[in-house]
Amino acid sequence: MQSLVIAVCTVVAVGGMWVVFARHRRLPSVLQSRSDLTPSELYRQFYPDLGVPLEQFALWWEEIGRAFEVPAGRIRPTDRFGIELPIRPVFGTSDEDMFLSGALRRFAGKTAVDSLPELRTVDQFIRFVASVNRAA
Fold first, then answer.
1. How far apart are CA 105 and CA 49, in angstroms?
2. Cβ 86 vs Cβ 68: under 8 Å
């Protein structure tokens, strides 16, 4: 009897962990229907006038994908932080400002973080970081 209870508890625990993991890894529905674009395709289609090298743009774009745990090729400029790109909770917080301030510090320097603008979309983030890098 005791081994049956242990077996049932184990199945329930493993099943619960699987459900949490599957829900955590699922792409938002808006991203599921999109085709994957390469960094080069994204750059040519949306940012031909950005004024920074493709390699630099690709680094920023990939960072957004890693931070939000989504394929970077499915991200589009109009995606909003916290909406189409939901934040995965980290230690009980789900604040997109944590990503933005960390990424801005790495890509645009401390001054950009100190004067953190209202960045709500991927496009706003990319263009802001590009403008800071062009001015430097």
1. 24
2. yes
